[in-house]
Amino acid sequence: MKSKTFNCFTESLLYTTAVYLVFFYFSSFKYSFLNMNLHPFLIVIAVISLKYGTYMSGFVVSFSIIYYILSYIGLGRDMIIFFSSFEYYKFILMFFFTALFLGKLRDTTDERIMYLEEEVSKAREDYEKQKENNVKLITVNSRLKKRIISSRESILTLNQIKSSFKNMSVEQIYTEAVLIMRQFLECDVVSIYSFNLEKNFMRLILRAGNGRMPGFLQVKENSVFSEVIKAGATMEFPLDIEGDSPVFVSPIRNNNEILGFINIERMSLEASERYSYEMFKIITHWLNEALSEAVVKEKKEIKENSLGNTGIFTMGYFNKIMLEEERRKKLLDMDFMVFETKLEGVTPEEVAEMIKGKVRESDFIAMDDVRLRILFPATTAASKELLMEKIATLFQGIEADFYEI
């Protein structure tokens, strides 16, 4: 805008000065300059007005009037006659009205061009959006067609899996539930949490994928989980870009009691959200019975396989858990780490006192008469040094040389 104003000012000054010098100052016909038919200043004003518009043409009109009056004074004429005689001041009016009319014409043309450019730009944006939506629609329709064709097989598969749950251990049921979610839904992160109503907190049982939700979670008022608890039903929530909150949540129910939650924390970008949510509701309805029984059965298994009330497990139960972790690594690409040490002359009660409040509930510790093992689920090899330091701190009161197995 500043550049345009400067250009208009400069051109107006140059052109009007040139007209003044050529047609008056250096001319032999000075007296005829004031009454020229189709005045040169009028031509300059028309050109500048058509080029720059109404507001900018003020420069050329001002310079033209100044030079016209200078010419009038230069001929020794009386200024009173100038303003009282229409013969002279008519040119001032002509300058103004020419600039006004032609400048307005330019302004109207510019506004129309700007409007059309905006419309073209908007049309292009709408076209690109529609093109993108059409591609998505074609992709979704193609996938839905395949899923509808295989829906009968899917229902039969769910029936078969549900029947097979009766012969599975608790950890195997959790694994299968996550595998089913991965099989039927295009999701990146799936998690299963248990829920303690008295303490109002959730504990992570199993997660597949790189999720951001913590292992322990206090259920706060107005959170997604509090809404699911109030509704007592599967719910869908807006996408959380940070990944701190799930998009689909289904309660694990035993009659009217909520024992936990199964969550889709993040969907694949290619997934059809509406189809996925409807499929999520169907699958979680089928899985609810098995998962609710698993949550109850887990408490019983822990009690039966613990050494007293210590929370330290028997080596036989530990080995079963470890086998399932190896299966999860193969099927779900979930890493884990296990450490062992020879340990004699130490009771489970003493070990329980050492680790009290210092390890996750998801970590498994087992021992027999000669050794102690610690399993860290969902843990990568990058954490090895940190875990070794943690273990050394936990058992610093006894002689224990831990190594990875």
Report what the structure shows.
58% of the residues lie in helices and 15% in strands. The chain has 13 helices and ten strands. The protein is elongated. Helix 4 (57-74) packs antiparallel against helix 6. The protein has a six-stranded antiparallel beta sheet, with helices on both faces. A four-stranded antiparallel beta sheet has the order 8-9-7-10, covered by helices on one side. It is of the alpha+beta class and 405 residues long.
Radius of gyration: 42 Å
The amount of helix comes to: 55-70%
Provide a count of the helices.
13
Strand order of the largest sheet: 3-2-1-6-5-4
State the end-to-end CA separation: 74 Å
Structural class: alpha+beta
Low-confidence region ranges: none
Query: Number of DSSP strands?
Result: 10
Key structural traits:
13 helices, 4-stranded antiparallel beta sheet, about 400 residues, 6-stranded antiparallel beta sheet, alpha+beta
Mind sketching the topology for me?
Blueprint lengths: L1 H24 L4 H4 L6 H13 L4 H18 L4 H6 L1 H64 L1 H14 L5 H15 L2 E10 L4 E8 L7 E3 L5 H8 L3 E2 L11 E7 L2 E11 L5 H33 L9 H18 L3 E7 L5 H8 L8 E4 L3 E7 L6 H11 L8 E2 L1
Antiparallel strand pairs: 1-2, 1-6, 2-3, 4-5, 5-6, 7-9, 7-10, 8-9
Helix pairs in contact: 1-3, 1-4, 3-4, 3-6, 4-6, 8-10, 8-11
Quick rundown:
With 405 residues, this protein is an alpha+beta fold. It is built from 13 helices and ten strands.
